[in-house]
Design a protein that fits this description.
Elements (H helix, E strand, L loop, with lengths): L6 H36 L6 H14 L5 H20 L3 E6 L7 H10 L5 E6 L5 H7 L4 E4 L13 E2 L1 H6 L4 E5 L2 E5 L1 H13 L7 E5 L3 H12 L4 E5 L20 E4 L24 E4 L8 H8 L3 E3 L2 H16 L6 H14 L1 E5 L6 H12 L2 E4 H9 L3 H23 L6 E4 L8 H8 L2 E7 L11 H5 L2 H15 L2 E4 L5 H12 L8
Parallel strand pairs: 1-2, 1-3, 4-6, 7-8, 7-9, 9-10, 10-11, 12-14, 12-15, 13-14, 15-16
Antiparallel strand pairs: 3-5, 5-6
This protein binds prephenic acid (PRE).
Length: 508
């Protein structure tokens, strides 16, 4: 019989072998660094899938008995570390002037989990320091944003045909001491339009703004066959100023590329989409808020609306592919976009008094790890009085006034569950405050099931009348309508989570 080792003996063997492994590991990593230097000089990517495949196959075939799968797992990890080591000290990031609220670092961190982790930061640079930063700054790859997309072209050694044609660069990569400029916004916006299923071919389009983003949008629309693209600028240099828009009310597609309506200055829009009788699709390159005032208005007019999140994620993926010199799976796009949308958006619960908004809200908050905001509690706090007291002292109008102030104060909230009072829908202004970052959920409960005690409005007018009056409002406002007829909060919460889950509704 084979002699068995004691724990101590086996550990001594492990310690001895670990010394050897460590020494070999050091030599392997040093060789990887050498390869990295060579690759840098020759402009080759760090990740070479064929080489890794060849190594994995060899390790699989040569592994000691029963250890093939372990050897493969070990070498997968080893080569991941090797790539990380080769990339050490390489900095990537977003270059711009004011970047406080950018989603890019978070998106690139997530893209890293779909490929390999890379160091992505924020570079806020003033115009007078731009040249020095581009030419001599410590970076390997950059995304470029407002106001530098056109300026950086001056320092590029080579500019891709796409970026040259558009006249704007949003991605810079350093290779062999040279600076290469690309435009991945094109890829990002094209993806957004293609996935929207908007019929661009033969359509008249109107684009608000004339900066770098506008040029990209125009190129995409033209490439997709738009019959006419009207660019609106404040100074009218593009051939159309805001006063001239009335000659283009026959547009079918509208795209905003201006910063009007962007956080923190939200609630504004450069045009009223409702005045375009043929308008069907409205795009905004802004993603914060998730729905600009323009998109909120367009949605109220039953147009199809798309925010800038898909474009942002798609351009980031295309840029990361250039940074890393490798493909990143397509599935990363939808996954990251959905994650961000879910993380940032509020769930705004609307419906008749007593339909279960607060209880369902609390359960949802718990299930989703989000904070619950109860508008009625905020109203009580603001007034320093109970809701029946506000009604008896100031009437419904007084109450609605406070409610509107509270809705307005919630405009910039993100990632919360907001339970609203039943009559929130009676003031159109509240929609615009709540829908900017909110997915509106109408909880519909049978009238006979609604309680009336302690609810001033419900006691004075018949519930059926209120319901009849408000139903079209709830339905007009909501993104999701859900029945609450089971008396099981969990059932309602689960079906809502199901609707919002993978394969659920697509919305912004
Ligand atoms: C190495 C690392 C990354 C590449 O994707 C392939 C292999 C490795 O660690 O084995 C080395 C290397 O950079 C190379 O052979 O090209």
């Amino acid at each position: 019989m084979e002699k068995r080792m004691t724990i101590e003996e086996a550990r001594a063997v492990i310690n001895q072998q670990d010394e050897k492994i460590l020494e070999a590991f050091g030599k392997r990593m040093a060789a990887a660094r050498e390869i990295a230097r060579n690759k840098e000089e020759q402009g080759l990517p760090i990740y070479i899938p064929e080489r890794e495949q060849e190594i994995l196959q060899r390790m699989h075939d040569r592994a000691p008995d029963g250890l093939a799968d372990y050897a493969v797992a070990l070498y997968e990890k080893l080569m991941e570390l090797s790539r990380q080591y080769q990339r050490e000290g390489k900095k990537y990031g977003l270059l711009g002037r004011k970047l406080g609220h950018s989603f890019s670092p978070e998106i690139h961190r997530m893209l890293g989990t779909w490929s390999e982790a890379y160091d992505y930061g924020i570079f806020q640079v003033e115009p007078e320091n731009l040249e020095e930063f581009i030419l001599h700054g410590d970076w390997a790859g950059l995304n470029v944003t407002i106001p530098y997309k056109e300026m950086v072209m001056a320092w590029c050694d080579e500019i891709s045909p796409e970026a040259t044609r558009i006249g704007a660069v949003n991605t810079l990569v350093r290779r062999q001491g040279k600076i290469y400029g690309y435009n991945t916004d094109y890829t990002g916006f094209r993806k957004t339009v293609e996935e929207s299923h908007a019929t661009v071919d033969g359509a008249k389009c109107i684009v608000l703004g004339s900066g770098g983003a506008s040029k990209t949008v125009v190129a995409v629309l033209k490439d997709l066959g738009a019959s006419e693209v009207v660019v609106v600028s404040r100074d009218g240099k593009t051939g159309c100023d805001y006063a001239g828009i009335s000659s283009h009310y026959d547009a079918r597609i509208l795209v905003n590329t201006t910063p009007v309506g962007m956080y923190p200055d939200t609630g504004k829009s450069a045009v009223y989409p409702g005045t375009f009788p043929k308008l069907e699709w409205v795009f905004d390159v802004i993603y914060n808020p998730l729905r600009t005032n323009l998109l909120c208005q367009a949605k109220r007019s039953d147009m199809q609306v798309f925010n800038g999140l898909k474009m942002l994620v798609a351009q980031a993926r295309a840029s990361a592919e250039l940074f890393l010199g490798r493909e990143i799976p397509k599935e990363a796009l939808q996954n990251i976009e959905r994650k961000l949308q879910r993380e940032k958006e509020n769930l705004v619960l609307i419906g008749m008094p007593g339909c279960g908004k607060s209880t369902i809200g609390a359960a949802l908050a718990e299930a989703m790890g989000k904070e619950l905001i109860d508008m009625d509690s905020l109203i009580t706090e603001r007034a320093g009085k109970s809701i029946p007291e506000i009604f008896s002292e100031r009437g419904e109008e007084g109450f609605r006034q406070i409610e509107m102030e509270v809705a307005e104060s919630l405009r910039h909230e993100t990632g919360k569950i907001i339970a609203c009072g039943g009559g929130v829908v009676t003031r159109e202004e509240n929609y615009y405050a709540l829908a900017e970052n909110g997915l509106l959920v109408f909880i519909d409960r049978a009238i006979g099931e609604l309680p009336t005690d302690g609810r001033p409005i419900s006691q004075t007018v018949s519930l059926a009348k209120i319901y009849a009056r408000r139903l079209p409002l709830y339905q007009g406002w909501c993104d999701i309508q859900i029945k609450n007829d089971t008396d099981s909060v969990t059932a309602v919460v689960n079906s809502l989570l199901h609707i919002m889950g993978e394969g659920g509704i697509d919305h912004v």
